[in-house]
UniProtKB/TrEMBL annotation:
InterPro entries for this protein: Integrase_cat-core (IPR001584), RNaseH-like_sf (IPR012337), RNaseH_sf (IPR036397)
Name of one Pfam family that matches: rve_3
Organism of provenance: Tepidiphilus thermophilus
PROSITE patterns listed in its UniProt record: INTEGRASE
Domain called Integrase catalytic: residue spans: 1-93
One GO biological process term: DNA integration
A GO molecular-function descriptor: nucleic acid binding
Protein's recorded name: Integrase core domain
SUPFAM superfamilies, per the entry: Ribonuclease H-like
Amino acid sequence: ITRGERTPTGTHAFDELCQALDIEHRLTKPRRPQTNGMVERFNGRISEVLATHRFDSREALEATIHRYVWLYNHHIPQKALGHVPPIEAMKRWYAEKPELFIKVPRNRPGPDSYCLSPSALIVACTAGRCAIFSTKRAKAGNCPRSICTKAVQRAHT
């Protein structure tokens, strides 16, 4: 423990669960968000979305957050993870130490094998760059790879 760090008390339900599962629970220094950079950046990105968009319903907000979490986990490389997205890091860890996992990461190894149906796509374009967000998953082979291209074309019409 470095100077100024907090320690878990062991009296909270989360601490008890960590102890039961033999997981080391560490806390960051008070008022030092830099020590928890990945989480702080993720929360900052969510805050940016919330500050710049209006949502018609709770469901629309929830869908947007779920799409962002999916995008973050599958497509945004993280420096702390060796410049790969979290899902890729998880697949690598599973390949190296499968005994650490309770569940097997789906569709490993390689890219995820699900495909998107046209009704499940939301395309967001900014400054000529497009991102495709999914609201649903479909089995691979149910749709051609050109769906993503068609979705981007529809967004520009």
